[in-house]
From TrEMBL:
Subcellular localization(s) per the UniProt record: Cell envelope
Family: Belongs to the polygalacturonase-inhibiting protein family.
Provenance organism: Carnegiea gigantea
Statement: the UniProt record of this protein carries the keyword Signal: yes
Classification via SUPFAM superfamilies: L domain-like
Gene3D superfamilies: Ribonuclease Inhibitor (3.80.10.10)
Residue ranges annotated for the Leucine-rich repeat-containing N-terminal plant-type domain, each copy included: 26-60, 285-323
Keywords from the UniProt entry: Leucine-rich repeat, Repeat, Signal
InterPro entries: Leu-rich_rpt, LRR_dom_sf, LRR_N_plant-typ, PGIP
Signal peptide start and end residues: 1-21
Protein name: Leucine-rich repeat-containing N-terminal plant-type domain-containing protein
Amino acid sequence: MGNYHALSLLVFSLLFSSALSAELCHPDDKKALFRIKKAFNNAYVFASWTPDTDCSDWYIVNVMRGPTVACPSSSQMTVRWRAASTTPPLGAIFLERNQLTGSVPESFGGLKNNKDLYVRLAKNKLSGPLPKSLGAVDFTVIDLSRNQFTGDASFFFRGSKGLQDVDLSRNKFSFNIGEVTLIIFDLSHNKIYGTLPPSLAKLSNLQQFNVSYNRLCGPIPTGGNLDRFDKYRYAHNKRLCGSPLPPCPITNNCQMISIMGNYHALSLLFFSLLFSSGLSAELCHPDDKKALFRIKKAFNNAYEFASWTPDTDCCDWYLVKCDEKTHRIISLSVTDDNKVAGPIPDAVGDLPYLQEIGFINLPKLVGPIPQAIARLKYLQSLWVSHTNITDPIPGFLAH
Ligand SMILES: *[C@@H]1O[C@H](CO)[C@@H](O)[C@H](O)[C@H]1NC(C)=O
Ligand SMILES: *[C@@H]1O[C@H](CO)[C@@H](O)[C@H](O)[C@H]1NC(C)=O
């Protein structure tokens, strides 16, 4: 608050960002909504649905990762439905370096490729032949390395359009492998500086991505192909943050520098200004807060959860992230802690809007992957690795 220069930057960039605000609505959703409007004979209730406006601003549309469309029950239209096909399927199943046993569930042959599909099961105690049905799945990345799989896996290299990376190393497979072209992207051990450009996420053939041991700082871009890379590809940099590393702090120097272009950093700063001037309302949903406290308790209030206190807004807590619009918890990521002990708490299933789960490098995390996770219908990324999680991979992950 004492920094007039920062404040005026903020004001200008607020003006700037509101003038140029991009359409949030997905064009496919917009098209579908127009068909719905038409099907209801362009009834008056849809008057705000016009081509030149952003569908996320439209009346009776709730834009999240999959829009919920509700017809007002007060009128003659009493239908209420959820556009089920727009709920994205689980697209990232990262279960490497655990103590998982058994074979790959038959249900994995039904895995859907919404956009990209990453499955990493490396370094477990998995065995047996792979279900033949996996041949029909359009994987982007499949890593089965360091298990005891047997039999044929050549079907991964036939006719799969989006396949970019297959790792079958250190198993007992036996088959003839075809040709696979990979693009190498390894910049490790340099003196490269600055922030990672968001366009990186759009490179479709990114392979062996590794920017470790550089001087990068700021948030790691999300989406696309970048989502599949583990934190070791970003290790030993100046100040990189965000998934798969811990969340970005509110005051990140890189973010302050690039504030003109960074709406997310801006809104964080804006909220922290509100907060510091005592005007902030709690954004956290009380149900989410309750569930998070159950998780904290299940892990014996480990130090990792020290910022999770009753008098603070859970959207500001370490290890979690809220959606910017709905303020529901969408991400939970607990990493690198040997005090976090016990099974994955069922309360994880009580965060209904979770899109990403990360339990990474937690040697005392034990037990199976709980059934409660099946309740999370918006889950897109499940990342449980470097733990002592046991039991077979649950089939419900593919449903
Ligand atoms: C990335 O590069 C570093 C440094 O060469 C190396 O230690 C690390 O294993 C690499 N990570 C991956 C996933 O290849
Ligand atoms: C599993 O637990 C053992 C014993 O505590 C530990 O040494 C090992 O590192 C753990 N495994 C992983 C992958 O964390």
